[in-house]
Design brief:
heterodimer, A: alpha/beta, Rossmann fold, 2 domains, six-stranded mixed beta sheet, four-stranded parallel beta sheet, 15 helices, globular, B: alpha/beta, TIM Barrel, nine-stranded parallel beta sheet, 12 helices
């Protein structure tokens, strides 16, 4: 490897020896495309024909009127194919897999969006596909499991550790150290060993590039603030990338779970509970105990329920290049309901974190200010969790009747 | 020091035996009994693993042992107390095996000082390659301890020499791709790989990953200096109990 991928003191490549050659190869191929305008053209063309790029920037007129402050715009990553920003990274890595001549892809998934995106990419490019998913997430994101399997992927439910996203990542690495000759690991977020944080950010930067052009075209000026939810940090890095050299405040919103004082959250940068550590091949802020054992995390959204965070965001946190906040499960559910009722838009529970926090601040800004909220994904996948959170009696009745019907026919 | 111990031992037997335990699994008391059984049965070196919540390089058997040990309340402090007792009681070299974060969180230099104080000879940390290990290597050097680095079948000759330049004591050669505790084909391919390893370093070679019985050990004689048995001893403890480790090791050493 030419570069170890450090951002301040964070990042690096803490690799088991067996993967060294694989990462050398990956870094080399990534370096060969990242400054190649032909590749970016090929990538953009794929994303505009197979997915729905550029995704719209929607003016949220009713929300703006309600909060009576900044003009609120929503970047619609939910309108990507498969319903989330995940496709941006996956299709980019898919093109690299084709160049490397590998025939199989593996991926971890939390909410299932990255898994579904990887399964579609594998189907389109003719790769075999295995998805690792924590057992807890398999249960709470069942619709995505269904789609991954229908798309031809094998979904392996991970029963080790805390049975969520980090455990799925460990298991994907265990697969990779055995099968790296034939297999590429499509890591879904801007975490992990170098070059993943840089590479995932590179593909996701299409979000920020578009958003910047769109807002300048519509409003003729830059936003005051942009908001994105932060799990591993890929959608946030994607949006932030477009505004790094602008006088725009970057706000990342983490999972506040049951509150920062409850210990049941996944806030690495906005709480005082995380510290610098090394795991899953990179150095960053982790929610860990004084021995360095990773702690259990909690969030209503599977996609933000992760112990680590992008090393690039850790550096931005320390350098105060971005501000990190959190939104609780309760606030998130309220924000989701409110957005649906006011705008007819259904954000994913992950994205609703960014909405929830932006709603707290929108009214304090002037009417001349603009904010952009990244809607990283659509909420349809969360139907079971949201129906539970809303405690919807008609939905419950439907599930009961459906279960009886299956039972009768079994 | 470790290197000369290994070479001296090799005058007496064709191949040495290193075993591995996860401290605190099934319990600290059992762990001590296992060490006792193994030392009495003639093990030459032992790896004591400090459990970590994310043991990325370990397969299902050792992974489970890590998790169970932590569930039962293992801490780094308890592991140190255990290691201290074991190394005082038994006259073989002990090594620590763990992951980067355990050392990082404790502080590399402090960790090394602790190791020296309890006479632990070296450490195997699979997720610290030398490129990321400057502080680690310096800390080990300070107390004349051995950072053990790893060769894999994917490692180029040039990189083997680089790893060897940073290593002390011996080289840990993983016999194949994948994680610990799965089947390994002891084949011509492995021969060629071990010959490459031998050429790249003057340090003794330990071979691990999938080594599980007398047949495997015999195969490695003349090709390597130390056979490493990891997951298999944990399997024996799980299936037949602590006492069974004695017979198991005796059979290997015959």
């Amino acid at each position: 490897m030419k570069d170890r991928g450090y951002y301040g003191q964070y990042g690096g490549a803490f690799l088991p020896e067996i993967l060294t050659t694989t990462f050398d190869e990956l870094e080399a191929i990534f370096n060969s495309i990242k400054n190649d305008p032909c590749f970016w053209k090929e990538y953009k063309s794929l994303m505009s024909s197979y997915s729905c790029r550029p995704t719209p920037l929607t003016f949220a007129e009713n929300l703006t009127d309600h909060f009576n402050g900044a003009k609120i715009y929503i970047k619609r990553e939910d309108l990507n194919h498969t319903g989330a920003h995940k496709a941006n990274n996956v299709m980019g890595q898919g093109l690299l897999v084709k160049k490397m001549g590998k025939k199989r892809v593996i991926a971890e998934t939390g909410a299932g969006q990255h898994g579904v995106a990887t399964a579609t990419m594998a189907a389109k490019f003719g790769f075999d596909c295995t998805i690792y998913m924590g057992e807890v997430d398999v249960l709470r994101q069942r619709p995505n499991v269904f789609w991954m399997e229908q798309l031809g992927a094998e979904v392996i439910s991970v029963k080790d550790g805390t049975r969520i996203l980090k455990d799925a990542i460990n298991e994907a690495f265990r697969d990779w150290v055995e099968n790296m000759d034939t297999t590429h690991y499509v890591l879904g977020t801007a975490c992990g060993p170098h070059p993943f944080p840089e590479m995932v950010t590179f593909f996701q930067s299409i979000i920020g590039q578009e958003a910047r052009n769109q807002i300048l075209e519509i409003e003729g000026k830059l936003p005051a603030r942009v908001y994105a939810c932060v799990g591993g940090g890929s959608n946030a890095m994607g949006l932030f990338s477009g505004f790094l050299n602008d006088p725009v405040e970057l706000v990342g919103v983490e999972a506040g779970g049951k509150g920062l004082n409850s210990g049941k959250h996944a806030s690495r940068l906005s709480s005082k509970d995380a510290s610098c550590g090394i795991a899953q091949g990179y150095k960053t802020y982790f929610l860990q105990d004084s021995d360095g054992q990773m702690k259990e995390t909690h969030s209503i959204s599977a996609g933000l329920d992760y112990v680590g965070v992008s090393p690039i965001l850790s550096k931005m946190h320390d350098m105060k290049e971005a501000r990190f906040e959190s939104a609780t499960d309760d606030d998130v559910v309220k924000a989701l309901r409110f957005t649906m009722q006011k705008e007819g838009i259904i954000p994913a529970l992950e994205s609703a974190h960014a909405f929830a926090f932006a709603f707290k601040e929108a009214g304090n800004l002037s009417k001349d200010d603009i904010i952009i909220i990244n809607q990283s994904g659509r909420g349809d996948k969360d139907i079971f969790t949201v129906a539970d959170a809303f405690d919807d009696p008609k939905w419950k009745q439907f599930i009961i009747e459906k279960a009886l019907e299956y039972k009768k026919n079994a | 020091m470790l290197k000369s111990y290994i070479n001296k031992k090799l005058d007496q037997k064709d191949i040495l035996l290193m075993t591995h335990i996860v401290m605190g699994y099934p319990s600290f008391e059992d762990s001590m009994n296992i060490v006792e059984q193994m030392v009495e049965a003639g093990v030459d070196l032992m790896e004591l693993q400090i459990p970590f919540s994310e043991p990325m390089a370990d397969g299902p058997v050792i992974l489970k042992a890590n998790q169970k040990s932590l569930e039962k309340g293992s801490t780094v402090k308890k592991c140190f107390e255990f290691a201290n007792k074991a190394s005082k009681r038994f006259d073989i070299p002990f090594l620590f095996m763990s992951y980067a974060n355990i050392l990082h969180k404790f502080g590399m230099e402090k960790f090394s000082d602790q190791m020296a104080a309890m006479d632990i000879k070296g450490a195997i940390v699979p997720d610290i390659p030398p490129e990321e290990g400057k502080e680690y290597i310096r800390a080990m050097e300070k107390n004349k301890l051995c950072p053990i680095f790893i060769f894999s079948p994917e490692t180029s000759d040039e990189r083997m020499r680089y790893l060897s330049d940073n290593a002390k004591g011996f080289i840990y050669c993983v016999a194949r791709k994948g994680v610990t505790g799965k089947e390994t084909q002891f084949s011509h391919e492995l021969d060629t790989y071990l010959k490459r390893c031998r050429k790249a370093t003057d340090l003794p070679l330990a071979v691990g990953f999938g080594v599980k019985d007398k047949k495997d050990m015999n195969y490695l004689k003349g090709k390597a200096d130390i056979a490493v048995i990891g997951s298999e001893t944990i399997r024996i403890v799980d299936e037949k109990g602590v006492k069974a480790t004695y017979d198991f090791i005796c059979n290997l050493n015959k």
